[in-house]
Specification:
By secondary structure, this protein is mainly α. The chain has one domain. It has three helices and two strands; from the N terminus they run ββααα. β1 and β2 form a beta hairpin. The longest helix has 52 residues. This is Copper transport protein. InterPro entries: Cop_transporter. GO terms for molecular function: copper ion transmembrane transporter activity.
């Protein structure tokens, strides 16, 4: 039966039967692994935002191929995110306080490292579109004033 309370014991299996955390070295290796997995999980948001930039082309066939490639890449990112999420959930289900803390630390480090890049990319893109829209609105006003004259 599974232990249903939080524990600090180091004698347990970690993700695999062969991976035992009987000593402090095994526990530290498990903690480093979960931190790295948490950072990788958060880095997928940056990869996805870079992917959304997309490429444009003129030919219909090239557009279809580019769309298929885009959907394929997004699918691969989603599958990776789901697998990493489940692995991290299994790490938390060990109910070991040290492992849970390292998962949270990995998410926090990943968020700290990668989310500002995602937000700045999106905010600069939206500000450029606002500037572009503002310029087109101004040019439309000028054109309507000239045509009225």
């Amino acid at each position: 039966m599974m232990n249903k309370v939080l524990t600090t014991y180091t004698t347990s299996n970690f993700l695999f039967l062969q991976w035992k955390t009987d000593d402090h070295i095994g526990l530290v290796v498990g903690m480093i692994t979960t931190v790295v997995l948490g950072v990788l999980f958060e880095s997928l948001h940056l990869i996805e935002s870079k992917l959304q930039k997309g490429e444009t082309s003129d030919s219909k066939r090239t557009v279809k191929m580019a769309k298929c490639a885009f959907v394929g890449k997004r699918t691969a990112i989603h599958m990776t995110r789901v697998v990493l999420g489940y692995v991290l959930m299994l790490c938390v289900m060990t109910m070991n306080v040290w492992i849970i803390g390292s998962v949270v630390l990995g998410y926090a480090i990943g968020y700290f490292l990668f989310r500002p890049w995602t937000y700045t990319r999106n905010s600069t893109r939206s500000s450029k579109s606002k500037i572009h829209n503002g310029l087109t609105e101004q040019s439309d006003k000028l054109l309507t004033k000239e045509s009225d004259v």
